[in-house]
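ugh ok so i messed up the first submission bc i forgot one of the chains. this is the corrected input, ALL of the components this time, i swear. 230 residues overall. if the numbers dont match what u have on ur side tell me asap before i send this to the collaborators (the ones from the other lab, u know who)
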Amino acid sequence: AQSVTQLDSHVSVSEGTPVLLRCNYSSSYSPSLFWYVQHPNKGLQLLLKYTSAATLVKGINGFEAEFKKSETSFHLTKPSAHMSDAAEYFCVVSDANRDDKIIFGKGTRLHILP
Amino acid sequence: EPEVTQTPSHQVTQMGQEVILRCVPISNHLYFYWYRQILGQKVEFLVSFYNNEISEKSEIFDDQFSVERPDGSNFTLKIRSTKLEDSAMYFCASSEAAASASYEQYFGPGTRLTVT
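and heres the new structure output, hopefully the right one now
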């Protein structure tokens, strides 16, 4: 069965410093992995996705994530945090063999300190 | 850019009442989904819908829930007899094809349902 674990429920970083949001997954088959962001009172927006092409995936707003099969990880990073990055971030996995179902992690709330 | 829309943005209802949450998916999309997020908890899959029938549903999606695509544009979630624990944010999503590979799901802004 597929699952996803976000190791930190809250992360605080200072503006201008790097961001690291951790995600580990469990999947029986070749997974597709996504990061979504949810700003307050807004819907879920796709940041980036991994679909078995390049292991380093670049997304919007300067975010990127690296798929590491040996570590079953898909951590989200950004070199320099901006105040507008404050939001909830969800790591999501879908099994290649289960076309229509995706599983969300519990989310990590990112706080940006001035 | 096309987007998924949901109405209403906030619905307040009394326990035992029926509610219908409405969604307009992106027009060329073929797969439709409902998720819910109870306050402070993670987003949970409820149901997926393809070719005018349910393709998968979670254990949460019991007999009090139903989905329908009444016309070519709307996708609705009906809760027949609401309970306090149904209070949550409900997200609709759609995708061009299946959620694997290149076809990510596009989410609406959500409907906050409050059951009193």
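quick check: The mean pLDDT of chain B is 91. that seems consistent at least. Chain B is about 0% helix and 50% strand.
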